[in-house]
Design brief:
The complex is a heterodimer of chains A (286) and B (288). Chain A is mainly alpha-helical and 286 residues long. Chain A has helices at residues 12-39, 77-113, 115-129, 133-144, 148-175, 178-185, 190-226, 238-247, 254-281. Chain B is an alpha/beta fold. Chain B has one domain: Rossmann fold (3-Layer(aba) Sandwich). The chains are: A mainly alpha (286), B alpha/beta (288).
Chain lengths: 286, 288
């Protein structure tokens, strides 16, 4: 009898929770990011020097008007956090997706077609990876100027090699399978075999890496903001807030702590989402 | 004559060692030819060369492969592929890797019928269902919608046999179709291939290292060593007593239900003699 309901592995329930929790956090963040202009209690740029360094509302001396307190210029931390999530998520989505597309395409071509295509791509990856990434992004900002698109470009240019290498290895392994030979005998073209037979089997890996990559993009954005190489300094970013909070950490820890927490949770959620999705999508692990 | 291979030679690309040495074979419609030999003898390479799926590192250096009277090796790539797709099929060695894990098995049987043979989807689906029934897969409607990992090894091999015979091809190449299976499942699979082939009058090139299985399926046997066909004969005559010393040694090294007894490894002297034969062949090619 065909068993269409195989025994669920023991880790299945846990994996389900992991997927739900991480997806829940990211969904909440996305909602906040989209609605920030309407739901943020204050203007993220409005300064009130008489209300500087107010602690969070539940602490002594806190003000219910400023839920997570204010920074040294009297700007509302919660509102800045909300607005900063717009930048973080935009970078995560755009940079992550572009990196995945570029790296997966090159990795798939190299791993499946082999021959000179593989040689060219592999050498390019080797040379590329020898270049220090931080230097690379600082150089890029110096040349192209600070801005959202520069960050995106930096992430794509630094990280496409990660995708290319993993996807190439996976495509190579899949290409050696008999089902690829069968598809060729049945008359499928090389390109058709690559797109219809191999690509679907490479996708779970690429997708897991895509979400990881989104987490990495968030970190890269925060680092570049931290060293003030990101977007024009007026706009709030998590990295920028952390940098500002560092100066007043002894007087107002909350200015640093909340953006750090947001950053941490977001990167963690992206990683867990990837792992959960891979388990859900891979027909063999399912 | 469905398949006729004449003087097919192949070697590792870039001046590497020979893989096939002037292999010549014929398989008629409705006939099964067993291609036997040790691993590394080049059995699979013959089947792969016919279907045009040789490993990247191997190239054909000489010979002709006539399929229904047309030399495949003279055809342009696209034309050859279309022709092979229309009249040939492969039953691969490893049922675990021969089905695409991310696609439902039904789709994998139906798609080639639609895309390569140009059938309409409804007809192809009906045909796939019939084929699943024919290979006695349980609950065909449900199995068609299953993913490979939901089926057992034997069931997957049945799916592959159904896929291979679905379009009633003129030639089926079975590449060690039972090697990856349990001994208890092997018998059923062998019988099934035999049955499907006989019913359709398909020419069958049956590649195996197992002489016992070859004796159950094939009317003729060709023995390969070092890419050289050392003997090709009627199966009954072959099992009664092969002519070539290596073929005889190979048969004595294989377990046989009709003559139980100690197995003898292929003697060193015989191996040396066939290797000398191969070397002599290489010399004639180089000078000729």
């Amino acid at each position: 009898m065909v068993d269409l309901h195989p025994v669920r592995p023991a880790g299945r329930r846990r994996a389900g929770w992991r997927l739900r929790l991480s997806a829940g956090w990211l969904l909440l963040l996305a909602l906040v990011a989209v609605l920030a202009p309407w739901i943020a209690p204050h203007d993220p740029l409005a300064q009130d020097l008489f209300a500087g360094r107010l602690p969070p509302a539940w602490m002594e001396g806190g003000d219910a008007l400023y839920l997570l307190g204010t920074d040294s210029l009297g700007r509302d931390v919660l509102s800045r956090l909300m607005h900063a999530s717009r930048v973080a998520l935009a970078v995560a989505l755009v940079a992550g997706t572009l990196t995945a597309l570029l790296g997966t395409a090159l990795g798939l071509l190299a791993g499946f077609l082999r021959g000179w295509t593989d040689r060219v791509v592999s050498r390019l990856v080797d040379v590329w990876m020898a270049f220090p990434p931080v230097l690379f992004s600082i150089l890029l900002v110096a040349v192209a100027g600070a801005g959202l698109w520069t960050i995106v470009l930096a992430v794509v240019l630094i990280d496409w090699t990660r995708f290319a290498r993993v996807v190439r290895a996976e495509a190579m392994a899949q290409g050696a399978m008999d089902y690829v030979a069968s598809a060729r005998v049945a008359g499928r073209s090389r390109l058709g075999t690559m797109l219809h037979e191999v690509l679907p089997n490479v996708l779970p890996v690429a997708l897991a890496m895509l979400t990881l990559e989104m987490g990495i993009a968030v970190i890269v954005e925060a680092i570049l903001s931290f060293v003030n190489l990101s977007i024009p300094t007026d706009d709030a970013t998590w990295g920028g807030m952390i940098a500002e909070g560092r100066a007043s950490i002894h007087q107002a820890w909350w200015v640093l702590a909340f953006p750090l927490l947001a950053l941490f949770l977001t990167v963690l959620a992206f990683g867990q989402l990837g792992e959960g999705l891979r388990e859900r999508l891979d027909p063999v692990l399912r | 004559m469905t398949l006729e291979v004449r003087g097919l030679s192949a070697r590792v690309r870039g001046g590497g060692p020979p893989v096939l040495r002037a292999v010549s074979l014929r398989v008629e419609a409705g006939e099964a030819l067993g291609l036997v030999g040790e691993s590394g003898a080049g059995k699979s390479m013959v089947g792969r060369a016919v279907l045009g799926i040789l490993p990247r590192a191997v190239e054909v250096t000489a010979g002709e492969v006539f399929l229904d009277g047309v030399d495949l090796l003279r055809l342009p790539e696209a034309e050859r592929r279309a022709r092979v797709g229309r009249i040939c099929a492969l039953i691969p060695q490893d049922p675990l890797s021969a089905l695409n894990p991310s696609r439902r098995v039904g789709r994998q049987v139906v798609d080639p019928l639609v895309e390569v043979l140009g059938w309409d989807r409804a007809r192809a689906e009906a045909r796939a269902r019939e084929a699943f029934e024919e290979v006695r897969l349980p609950d065909p409607g449900r199995t068609l919608r299953a993913y490979p990992h939901e089926l057992s090894g034997g069931q997957r091999q049945r799916v592959l046999i159904a896929a291979a015979f679905a379009a009633s091809p003129r030639l089926v190449v079975a590449d060690e179709p039972t090697t990856a299976l349990d001994v208890t499942v092997q018998r059923g699979i062998v019988g099934l291939i035999r049955e499907m082939q006989a019913r359709r009058g398909t020419a069958l090139l049956f590649v195996t290292h197992d002489l016992g299985i070859a004796s159950k399926v094939c009317a003729r046997i060709a023995v390969l060593y070092a890419g050289l066909v050392v003997e090709e004969s009627d199966a009954r005559a072959f099992f009664r007593g092969p002519v070539h010393p290596y073929a005889r040694a190979l048969l004595e090294a294989s377990p046989r239900p009709d003559a139980p007894g100690a197995l003898r490894p292929v003697p060193e002297a015989v191996v040396r003699a066939v290797r000398a034969e191969a070397a002599a062949f290489d010399r004639t090619v180089r000078h000729g």
